[in-house]
Amino acid sequence: MTSRESGRIKEADKKRVLDEASRKRRARKALEALEQDNFHDDPHADLVMSKKIPKFQDNLDTSKNKKGKKPKNAEYFKAKYRKTFSQLLEEDKTLRPDPPNYGSAQAPPSRFPERHFCAVCGFPSNYTCTSCGTRYCCVRCLGTHQDTRCLKWTA
Which residue stretches does the UniProt record annotate as biased composition, category Basic and acidic residues (predicted)? Predict the structure, then answer.
């Protein structure tokens, strides 16, 4: 008589399992990728518009001043002089070299235990992927994780 086994247990030996150092490296690379996606300068900011192109909006605009130019609002200046996070940090260092500033801000460790959230949906999670260590909250999120995320972009 043969004993019945779970299919999940049979496949566990075939799965690739990352050690703790690989998991940390993978998490760091994912954060770096997110940081790269965060902010980019507008690639079209330096383009010069051709004067040969007809300007249809000029005829319809009634909010022009006497010289024929449209007044510039705050949104124009926000877009033109937008700064990256690193530029804002440098500016903060020069304006306020003495604490308190962003670089010197500190908080004591939390009295409460660390909270874990699902990497798929963001709800609180109780489970961890055996292969890569990513957190998930339910079987549905585990399926999504295994189909789309698990060990897809490891280095």
Answer: 1-22
